[in-house]
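Duplicate of earlier report; MmcQ/YjbR family DNA-binding protein input re-posted below.
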Amino acid sequence: MTPKQVDAYCRSLPAATRTVQWEGVTVFKVGGKMFCLIGPPGHSVARLCFKCPPEHFEALSHAKGFKPAPYLARATWVALEDPSVLTPAETRAYLKQAHAVVAAGLSKKKRAELGLK
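Output:
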């Protein structure tokens, strides 16, 4: 997926918000918590980073095309260095999962406010 396609998909997720921070990094959040980052070319953040479930972090961070995300690996984030290793459907699945992991960590009150289960 292109950064533009990732942007459109992330904005379509329930209660997702988009902002630009850190010298041009596009940041997607749910309930004020980040779930995906799109770095501009040459930025230290990497092209695409997202949250993954803790139980998947070790395997995913060493899979072909991935690495631990700069600055965020301690919070179980991965960087997709080579987007061609995933189909668009696989990329969307990882992004949807990232959104779900972060949304699940929100308080019940916050999830209710956002219309999330």
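The mean pLDDT is 91.

Merging into the original ticket.
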